[in-house]
Amino acid sequence: MKKIRLELVYLRAIICAIIIVTHLLTQITLKHENMEGGSLVLQFYIRNIVIFGTPCFIILSQLLTTLNYQKVTYRYLTTRVKYILIPYILMGLFYSYSESLLTDTSFQKQFIENVLLGQWYGYFIVVIMQFFILSYIIFKINYNLFNSKILLLLSFILQQSFLYYFTNNTTFHDTVLHYYPLSENTIIFGWIFYFFLGAYMGYNYERVLNFLERYLVIMIVLAVATYFVFIALANGDYWNVTSFSYSLTPYNSCLLYTS
Q: What are the residue boundaries of the Acyltransferase domain, all occurrences included (predicted)?
């Protein structure tokens, strides 16, 4: 029988609230198209402080999986289709309908672009569903792979390398989008480290708690420090705020620990 861990229930609720706040701030920014100068820079930094919602949701989802299971059956996937994918589609139907009215475009066009291709705020569900499949495959191979420090390191290198070249190399960026049919934010290589970090934390949950009891202050200092590193690496595009960024990976990871 799975043990209910209230701290994770509360954490999931907080992360969901953070995701909502992130999108509210985005809408506020978009409604002030003439924002410039200090106001634009300030909103950029505030939005990036709370941008950790999606990465932390990915980490927490996999943490809960490896914490609660040592083996899975096909029901693991069907349950997630029932309780995550179907609600995603239903909410997408309402969203697509409202967008078709607002933009005077066809419902079919909105549904394909938003729900199927992931070009809306619910894109992270598309990412998580891909990771559920990956998790199922790894469980079938060997559960102990979730405890691999080598895989954790390789996933970090893969994610950072992918995001760096995707952001800074036009040829690489265009080639990826040419062959990848969905929204660029749903490419799992840009989130893969968060998946394995969550898996490792779930596998070693008690050790993680003991670590935080001893070094919480250090982790908080690291979170603040990594945010200032992000500020130092900012390229001056104060309109573009996304967690799909190599410069935010250390900050997002530390935030989950300090939460």
A: 9-246
Residue 110 has pLDDT above 50, yes or no: yes
Cα separation, 3 vs 205, whole angstroms: 13
Nearest to 123 by CA among 164, 184, 165: 184
Checking if the pLDDT of 142 tops 60, the result is: yes
Residue at token pair 């309780």: 83
Tokens of 124: 């992270």
Reported as a pLDDT band with limits 50, 70 and 90, residue 106 is very high
User: Does residue 136 sit within a domain?
Assistant: no
CA distance 73 to 226: 39
Rounded distance, CA 59 to CA 192, Å?
10
How many domains are there within the chain? Answer: 1
226 located within any domain: yes
Of 8, 142, 4, 132, the residue nearest 71 (C-alpha): 142
The CA distance from 79 to 175, in Å, is 35
Q: Could you report the per-residue pLDDT of 10-63, keeping only the tens digit for each? A: 888 888 888 888 878 877 777 766 666 677 778 788 888 888 888 988 999 999
pLDDT of residue 202: 94
**50 Cβ neighbours under 8 A, 6+ residues apart:** 18, 21, 22, 25
Domain span at 216: 6-71+143-258
